[in-house]
């Protein structure tokens, strides 16, 4: 067997020995302790190799707008208001430039698949969608980008947004999303978005229950509609911070219902920590749903970026390994099993939320999406926020990120 490329001396989860990974036609053709010489190769030098990260929830179109959104209160209401005003000035070239900056950061941080929400409403029209569609084409060889046509500011009170969602879906959007908490009729909002998911045969993704009042959850209405329509496994939600404020028995009840309806949940630590619990004078709540506990109940879960440098999250670098570490810190996870689960929520578990079949460990027959991390295991990678060193997408190298080195001072 003649390989096109071999990644040698890789440390892979589930194997005790180092292995060589042979690539043919963009797929992994062999994983053996020692593959024949002759093909172009690269040594991982005994470092941990996985299949690349999956960002299940990000807003590329709204990234990098702090210069036009002066933060005063730091509240969710202010973030929605400031961003809505800023959107009126979005132009396709502006969105493309800002989104490209973050996408490049994500790629060199090891992300190889991503769902980006794209706001489509009368303030911005299809400008952001057109920009991200071009970006998707530009970087198709480096990252799989799912564009989710998204109604951030409601639907029932502004049905022109519905027409724009349809236009985006007709022009290639690969999922559709809504935000019930910004709509005067959340249940109707949910049904309108699910109507489009059925009509265009795409997944649906909702920003939902983004507050700390344990009452008034929109999850029951969503779960009921998903089951009635037979959309199990086709719907996911982001935030769901209400879950963090619920009594344990109510949390367990909803977790069971989410699992039964096969609704995925994406937790967004940076944003949830920044925006939630601001009214507390002491012992401020974390406001972050426990994805690890949801996973124990059988819910598909992920940890993701959400926003970068905007009023919703005025910091960030699109590093998912950093986000997995942050989640583990906030959720007070420390055992090897728990840390491994945190890693999975930016890998195969996150892929599952997006409906992708992807194992975090390289496997024969899978696409040769390979990532070298400066660690010896997934657990160590999360604990140390290990630096990605190099990545390959379908066998083609996409980035190089050499480790820093100390220079000896002259005496």
Question: What does this protein structure show overall?
Answer:
This protein is of the alpha/beta class. The chain is built from 13 helices and 16 strands. It has helices at residues 76-87, 92-108, 127-138, 160-170, 186-200, 219-229, 248-261, 269-275, 291-296, 320-330, 336-344, 348-353, 378-384; strands spanning 5-10, 19-24, 27-32, 41-43, 48-50, 53-58, 111-119, 144-151, 175-178, 204-208, 235-239, 263-267, 301-303, 370-373, 388-393, 396-400. The strands form three sheets. The chain has an eight-stranded parallel sheet. It has a four-stranded mixed sheet with strand order 3-2-1-4, with no helix packed on it. Strand 10, helix 6 (219-229) and strand 11 form a beta-alpha-beta unit. Helix 2 (92-108) packs across helix 3 (127-138) and helix 6 (219-229) runs parallel beside helix 7 (248-261). It is globular and about 65 Å long. The N and C termini lie far apart (54 Å).
Q: What is this structure, in a nutshell?
A:
The protein has 411 residues and is α/β, with parallel strands linked by helices. Helices cover 34% and strands 20% of the residues. The strands form three sheets. An eight-stranded parallel sheet has the order 6-7-8-9-10-11-12-13.
**Helix-residue proportion:** 25-40%
Order of helices and strands: EEEEEEHHEHEHEHEHEHEHHEHHHEHEE
Question: Largest sheet, described in full?
Answer: 8 strands, parallel
Model regions low in confidence, pLDDT < 50 over at least 5 residues: none
Number of strands: 16
Alpha carbon gyration radius = 21 Å
Tally of DSSP helical segments: 13
How far is the N terminus from the C terminus?
54 Å
Shape category: globular
Strand order of the largest sheet: 6-7-8-9-10-11-12-13
**Structure class:** alpha/beta
Q: What is the average per-residue confidence, as pLDDT, rounded to a whole number?
A: 96
Percent range for β-strand residues = 15-25%
């Amino acid at each position: 067997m003649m390989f096109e490329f071999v990644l040698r001396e890789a440390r892979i989860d589930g194997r005790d020995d180092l292995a060589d990974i042979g690539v043919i036609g963009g797929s992994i053709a062999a994983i053996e302790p020692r593959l024949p010489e002759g093909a172009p190769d690269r040594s991982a030098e005994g470092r941990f190799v996985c299949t690349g990260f999956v960002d299940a929830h990000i807003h590329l179109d709204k990234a990098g707008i702090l210069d036009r959104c002066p933060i005063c209160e730091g509240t969710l209401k202010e973030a929605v208001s400031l961003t809505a005003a800023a959107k009126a000035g979005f132009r396709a070239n502006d969105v493309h430039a800002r989104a490209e900056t973050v996408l490049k950061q994500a790629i060199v941080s090891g992300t190889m698949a991503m769902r980006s929400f794209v706001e489509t409403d009368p303030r911005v029209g299809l400008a952001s969608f057109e920009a991200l569609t071009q970006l998707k084409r530009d970087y198709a060889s480096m990252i799989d980008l799912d564009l989710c046509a998204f109604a951030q500011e409601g639907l029932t009170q502004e049905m022109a947004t519905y027409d724009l969602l349809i236009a985006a879906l007709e022009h290639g959007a690969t999922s559709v999303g809504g935000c019930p908490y910004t709509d005067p009729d959340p249940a109707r909002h949910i049904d309108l978005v699910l109507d489009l998911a059925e009509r265009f045969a795409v997944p649906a993704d909702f920003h939902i229950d983004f507050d700390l009042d344990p009452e008034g959850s929109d999850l029951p209405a969503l779960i009921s509609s998903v089951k009635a329509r037979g959309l199990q496994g086709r719907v996911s939600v982001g935030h769901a911070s209400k879950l963090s404020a619920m009594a344990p028995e109510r949390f367990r009840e909803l977790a069971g219902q989410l699992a039964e309806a096969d609704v995925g949940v994406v937790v967004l630590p940076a944003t949830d920590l920044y925006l939630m619990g601001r009214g507390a004078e002491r012992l401020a709540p974390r406001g972050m749903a426990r994805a690890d506990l949801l996973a124990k109940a059988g819910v598909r879960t992920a940890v993701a970026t959400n926003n970068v440098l905007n009023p919703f999250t005025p910091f960030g670098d699109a590093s998912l390994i950093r986000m997995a570490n942050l989640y583990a810190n906030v959720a007070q996870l420390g055992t090897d099993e728990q840390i491994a689960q945190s890693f999975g929520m930016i890998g195969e578990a996150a892929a599952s939320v997006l409906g992708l079949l992807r194992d975090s460990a390289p496997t024969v027959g899978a696409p040769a999406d390979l990532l070298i991390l400066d660690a010896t295991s997934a657990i160590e990678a999360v604990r140390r926020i290990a630096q990605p060193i190099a990545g390959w997408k379908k066998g083609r190298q996409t980035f190089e990120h050499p480790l820093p080195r100390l220079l000896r001072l002259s005496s």
